[in-house]
Amino acid sequence: MCYINRILETIIKTIKPRSKGEETMRRRPLNRKQLEIMEILWEAKAGMTLSQIAKRCENLKLRTVHHCLKVLTRRRYVRIVNKAALSNKNKPEPIYVPVIDREEYLRIACEQLMALSSSDLLMISMVNEIDDEATLHDLGKQIRKRLQRLKED
Which residue in 110, 113, 122, 147 has the fewest CB atoms around it within 10 Å? Predict the structure, then answer.
């Protein structure tokens, strides 16, 4: 998964920011901090409060996590489903849940990257970043399956 994060960071650096109005209409790739928060939410498989997320983000301050969640909500990556009454607080906290899953996010990010570069160069770059033999073997299987489907069509 590390090679995917490096590729996604490249996407983030190369895509020009849009105006605020466009930002809510089309999902943009996430920065490293936002992606870290999304990974936590995807792994949790259930909604989490700000404080629960912040506890898992050891390298991020509560304020940073809160800001990232506001951006993720505005961009429609997460939504607030309800408020959780926590025993140690008088005020209930919002519960954040991911709107899209990890695979959907990767599809969006890859589409945006492919719009910036030729698909051949993109695939070669991605394959060159993979050091795991099992992953390369799985990719080879997927390529052979796709070739077979193209021959059948």
Answer: 147
Partners of residue 84 on adjacent β-strands: 93
3-state secondary structure labels for all residues of 10-44: HHHHHCCCCCHHHHHHCCCCCCHHHHHHHHHHHHH
Which tokens belong to 139? 């990719």
What tokens appear for 4 in the block?
């995917």
Q: Which residues make Cβ contacts (< 8 Å) with residue 80, sequence separation at least 6?
A: 73, 94, 95, 96, 97
**What's the token pair of residue 75?**
């961009």
Spell out the alpha helix ranges (H) of the chain.
2-14, 20-25, 32-44, 50-56, 62-74, 102-116, 119-129, 133-152
Domains parsed from the chain with CATH numbers: 2-119 (1.10.10.10)
Q: Is the dihedral of CA 60, 40, 75, 84 positive or negative?
A: negative
Residues 94-103 pLDDT 10s: 899 999 999 8
Cα 87 to chain centroid distance, Å, stands at: 32
User: Which of 28-37 are b and which e, b meaning 16 or more Cβ less than 10 Å from the residue's Cβ?
Assistant: bbbeebbbbb
* pTM confidence score: 0.61
pLDDT digits (tens, 9 = 90+) for 50-62: 999 999 998 899 9
